[in-house]
């Protein structure tokens, strides 16, 4: 029974193939107005409207699938572009940070040469913490006693004076900025010999005030304010003379002593790299600092500078 069915199907298949060949031969052999051509035309006349209708009915479906495919492709391209943009953004930030650090280090190198602070040992440190309040009065650095950092050591960057070391640990230190309420720096105008005290301006944490200048001191907006190389109290830091603190913005004439408003030269809100001016025990800066701290308040530390070489040679305080 199974063999009969198979033979029957094969016979039908052969018959259809033979019939197809005969029809094709007759179709291509007859004239254009022949019977087979007429049947073809009638068949197309019936089928064409159905095919057109089906094409029109299915066009929205094809368009929808095309839109989905294009959307998925566009999303894939968008994700790739976002990844590329994110990568380029990270590279740009890293490049800017590297250039900025290089500029700061280069500026501090030039500052060291200009100030002649070769008697000090500058220790470069990274700022790892900042005061959480809006005053930014202190920062934390990643160098401490193990690197030779001591309390009251001056702290600078490529722009000028930053502050001084207030507390120190083995591998870190806290730096009081010049805008801290506890700070006071003996300073002078770059064009005058008269000295005063630079302190934070009350109510304006971003500004400083150079006070107690003699009444006849000539001061003009734009004048530079630098460290004087003197101390005003026993717990003061003996900053090397000539470190830039800032520029005069305006002059006050209300009291017997003249005072001037000063804008800090260093950007204290955006510190990344600083230098601590350290001095080994027995060195000239250390001996001068110790001697200056022992003088009566207000006596100039410049008086001991002339005898600095003698101090160093005799090892005073060593």
What does this structure look like?
Helix content is 41%, strand content 25%. With 318 residues, the protein is an alpha+beta fold. The chain has a domain at 116-307: Thrombin, subunit H. A 6-stranded antiparallel barrel has the order 1-2-5-4-3-12. β4 (160-168) and β5 form a beta hairpin. α3 (284-294) packs across α5. Mean pLDDT is 75; it is low at 298-318.
Strand order of the largest sheet: 1-2-5-4-3-12
The termini sit apart by 122 Å
Number of strands: 12
Stretches where pLDDT is under 50 for at least 5 consecutive residues are: 298-318
Output mean pLDDT.
75
Assign the CATH topology of one domain.
Thrombin, subunit H
Radius of gyration: 44 Å
**Beta-strand content bin:** 25-35%
Biggest sheet: strands, sense, closure?
6 strands, antiparallel, barrel
Outline of the structure:
This protein has 318 residues and is an alpha+beta fold.
List the keywords.
318 residues, rod-shaped, 6-stranded antiparallel β-barrel, Thrombin, subunit H, 12 strands, disordered C terminus
Architecture blueprint of SSEs:
Blueprint: H1 2-29, H2 35-115, E1 121-130, E2 138-141, E3 154-157, E4 160-168, E5 173-177, E6 185-189, E7 195-201, E8 204-213, E9 224-227, E10 244-252, E11 258-264, E12 273-278, H3 284-294, H4 302-305, H5 308-314
Antiparallel strand pairs: 1-2, 1-12, 2-5, 3-4, 3-12, 4-5, 6-7, 6-9, 7-8, 8-11, 9-10, 10-11
Helix pairs in contact: 3-5
């Amino acid at each position: 029974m199974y063999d009969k069915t198979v033979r029957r199907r094969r016979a039908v298949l052969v018959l259809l193939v033979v019939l197809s060949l005969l029809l094709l031969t007759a179709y291509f052999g007859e004239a254009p107005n022949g019977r087979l051509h007429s049947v073809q035309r009638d068949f197309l006349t019936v089928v064409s409207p159905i095919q057109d209708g089906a094409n029109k009915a299915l066009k929205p479906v094809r368009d929808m699938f095309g839109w989905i495919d294009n959307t998925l492709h566009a999303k894939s391209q968008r994700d790739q572009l976002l990844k590329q943009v994110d990568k380029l953004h990270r590279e740009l930030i890293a490049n800017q940070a590297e250039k900025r650090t290089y500029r700061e280090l280069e500026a501090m190198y030039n500052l060291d040469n200009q100030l002649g602070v070769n008697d000090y040992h500058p220790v470069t440190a990274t700022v790892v913490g900042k005061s959480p309040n809006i005053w930014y009065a202190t920062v934390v650095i990643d160098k401490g006693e193990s690197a030779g950092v001591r309390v009251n050591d001056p702290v600078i960057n490529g722009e000028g004076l930053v502050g001084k070391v207030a507390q120190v640990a083995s591998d870190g230190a806290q730096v009081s900025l010049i805008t801290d309420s506890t700070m006071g720096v003996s300073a002078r105008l770059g064009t005058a010999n008269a000295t005063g005290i630079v302190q934070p301006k009350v109510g304006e944490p971003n500004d400083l005030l150079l006070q107690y200048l003699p009444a006849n001191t000539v001061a003009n907006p734009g004048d530079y304010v630098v460290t004087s190389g003197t101390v005003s109290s026993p717990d003061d830091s003996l900053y090397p003379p000539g470190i830039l603190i800032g520029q005069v913005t305006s002059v006050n004439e209300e009291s017997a002593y003249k005072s001037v408003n000063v804008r800090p030269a260093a950007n204290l809100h955006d510190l990344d790299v600083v230098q601590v001016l350290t001095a080994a025990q027995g060195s000239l800066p250390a001996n001068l600092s110790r001697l200056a701290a022992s003088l009566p308040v207000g006596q100039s530390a410049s008086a001991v500078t002339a005898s600095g070489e003698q101090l160093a040679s005799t090892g005073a305080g060593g």
